[in-house]
Amino acid sequence: MSQVDVTIMGQAYKLACKEGEQAALIQAAAYLDEKMCAFRDSAKIKGTDRIAVMAALTISAELLATKAPTGPFSEMSLVEIKKQMSQMEDVLDTALSAQETLF
């Protein structure tokens, strides 16, 4: 087992991984950082947890679109998936906006 240092949205993480998988983990962390920073920089989403959820949903949709030719996203283009993601983001904004006043 080895350890890899990565940075996601300016936060440093030390992650454990199997020998030989360091490069893949670093690449995955960089991709996640890119997605999360894009959501953060869009200024539409506030809060690290919400940014993480939207990045995870986006990455999941990308994965499903490439893995399952007969799955739930099989007949959708990437543009349509992004539109769906935007609609989910709006639902999350509405649902979570009341929680922002709690803190």
UniProtKB/TrEMBL annotation:
Does this entry carry the keyword Plastid? Answer: no
Q: Which Gene3D superfamilies match?
A: 1.20.5.50, Cell division protein ZapA protomer, N-terminal domain
Compartment annotation: Cytoplasm
Please list the GO biological process terms of this entry.
division septum assembly; FtsZ-dependent cytokinesis; septin ring assembly
Cellular component GO terms held in the UniProt record:
cell division site; cell septum; cytosol
Question: What single Pfam family name could you report for this chain, choosing any that match?
Answer: ZapA
Keyword annotations for this protein, in alphabetical order, are: Cell cycle, Cell division, Cytoplasm, Septation
Q: How does it assemble?
A: Homodimer. Interacts with FtsZ.
Role played:
Activator of cell division through the inhibition of FtsZ GTPase activity, therefore promoting FtsZ assembly into bundles of protofilaments necessary for the formation of the division Z ring. It is recruited early at mid-cell but it is not essential for cell division.
Full protein name: Cell division protein ZapA
